[in-house]
Design goal:
This protein is mainly β. The protein has three helices and nine strands. The termini are far apart.
């Protein structure tokens, strides 16, 4: 015979939540949690698009890459807003001098005009190719790097911080 579930009524729930077994976390823990929450991306800054990392080559090859320096990283983001969906396929790699290269494609390309890469305080802009492709070379990889895709009509998709490939000159 299966286990019997204990269903919680509203009255029982109030009693459980008011129980003495529940403790308030220390103030220092609450401050840390609030500081971490403040670092989360603001949905309004992404242009109202929900940004989801669907694929990260480092996650899928974690067992294979143990002890091996990975200079390339492949990322696939899915961005949704209402019933509209787009994908941003990225390849990030470092050149021999440790500078960053960001190559990618916005799908579908229709309605996407240009892409802006934000590296620290610097911004570099580029019109998208006919298939939604773009390439930026020689970026500083020692600062946070983000990406903006500008759409026809003034909207934009924002990926605030890209996970970067390893730097061969840093331990």
């Amino acid at each position: 015979m299966g286990r019997r579930r204990n269903w919680v009524s509203e009255k029982n729930l109030e009693e459980l939540l008011a129980g003495r077994h529940l403790h308030e976390p220390p103030a220092s823990t609450l401050r840390k949690a609030e500081a971490l929450a403040a670092r989360l991306p603001d949905p309004a800054r992404s242009g109202g698009w929900l940004v989801e990392l669907v694929f990260d080559s480092w996650e899928s090859a974690a067992e294979v890459r143990a002890g091996v320096l990975q200079l390339d990283r492949r990322l696939l983001y899915r961005l949704t807003s209402g019933n509209e969906e787009r994908e941003v396929d990225l390849r990030l790699r470092r050149d021999e001098r440790g500078r960053l290269e960001v190559a990618g494609q916005v799908l579908p390309p229709e309605g996407a005009e240009q892409v802006v890469v934000v590296a620290g305080r610097g911004r570099r802009r580029q019109a998208l190719g006919g298939t939604g492709d773009f390439l930026f070379r020689g970026l500083s990889g020692s600062v946070p790097v983000g990406l903006e895709v500008w759409l026809t009509g003034g909207g934009k998709l924002v990926i605030e911080s890209l996970p970067l490939p390893e730097d061969p000159d840093r331990p």
